[in-house]
């Protein structure tokens, strides 16, 4: 039986560095899909079943930090930053966006490969599988394209409704506390505004449930919080 191939997405604007890193990864038996821009890299990340992402922060079309945030909307794959930026603020921004590791240029091949292998081992142990598309009931959420549909028809969500839905989707099957939801969606300064959650959960139910008065998926657990159940 053939062993599954490890797939890496490499987003790097410098062609020479891209070729060099690709050659080293391929030498370890990994499949590498290259991208020279953030937009191209996101397309590759969505269409390939990747195990790990390597990204430069300085890209020709957008900031690599924004690319990391976009990927984190739908994927928990390990993300390693490979960048010439070595300021603490840049590293903090990357980690806050969702990066798992940060390697500054110039870098050693042995160190890069060691970090890649460590993150791949952790991912394999977790058994985690990413998919940007989530279905529940009559609703479908594509986190990569930020499209939400109900019975195949596009549904308009406000930015806050969408942020709340993303948090619920990323923790599907779990009941999230009011505190966690308020912090993730509105920030730590709004922990006493529990009425926000009642209003926005009601909005989501009206837009996405078969019967908003009897929600099957966007559920309330009295005294604890809310959760998205039955997603696949």
UniProtKB/TrEMBL annotation:
Can you supply one Gene Ontology CC term for this chain's record?
A: protein-DNA complex
Domain annotation OmpR/PhoB-type: ranges: 131-230
Keywords attached to this Swiss-Prot or TrEMBL record, sorted alphabetically, are: DNA-binding
| Domain (Response regulatory) ranges | 7-120
GO MF terms held by the record: phosphorelay response regulator activity; transcription cis-regulatory region binding
Q: Which Gene3D superfamilies match?
A: 3.40.50.2300, 6.10.250.690, Winged helix-like DNA-binding domain superfamily/Winged helix DNA-binding domain
Q: Sorted alphabetically, which PROSITE patterns does this protein's record hold? A: OMPR_PHOB, RESPONSE_REGULATORY
Instruction: State what protein this is by name.
Output: KDP operon transcriptional regulatory protein KdpE
Gene behind this chain? kdpE_3
């Amino acid at each position: 039986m053939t062993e599954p191939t490890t797939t890496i997405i490499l987003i790097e604007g410098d062609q020479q560095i891209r070729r060099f890193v690709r050659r080293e990864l391929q030498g370890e038996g990994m499949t590498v899909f290259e991208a020279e821009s953030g937009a191209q890299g996101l397309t590759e990340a969505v269409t390939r079943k990747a195990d790990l992402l390597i990204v430069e922060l300085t890209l020709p079309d957008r900031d690599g930090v924004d690319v990391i945030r976009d990927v984190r909307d739908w994927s928990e794959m390990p993300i390693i930053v490979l960048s010439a930026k070595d300021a603490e603020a840049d590293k903090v921004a990357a980690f806050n966006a969702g990066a798992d590791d940060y390697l500054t240029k110039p870098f050693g091949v042995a160190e890069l490969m060691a970090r890649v292998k460590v993150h791949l081992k952790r991912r394999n142990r977790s058994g985690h599988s990413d998919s940007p598309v989530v279905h529940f009931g009559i609703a479908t959420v594509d986190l990569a394209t930020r499209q939400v549909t109900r019975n195949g028809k596009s549904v308009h969500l406000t930015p806050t409704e969408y942020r709340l839905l993303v948090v619920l989707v990323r923790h599907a099957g779990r009941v999230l506390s009011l505190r966690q939801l308020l912090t993730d969606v509105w920030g730590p300064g709004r922990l006493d505004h529990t009425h926000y959650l009642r209003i926005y959960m009601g909005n989501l139910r009206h837009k996405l449930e078969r019967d908003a008065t009897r929600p099957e998926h966007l559920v309330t657990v009295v005294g604890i919080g809310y959760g998205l159940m039955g997603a696949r």
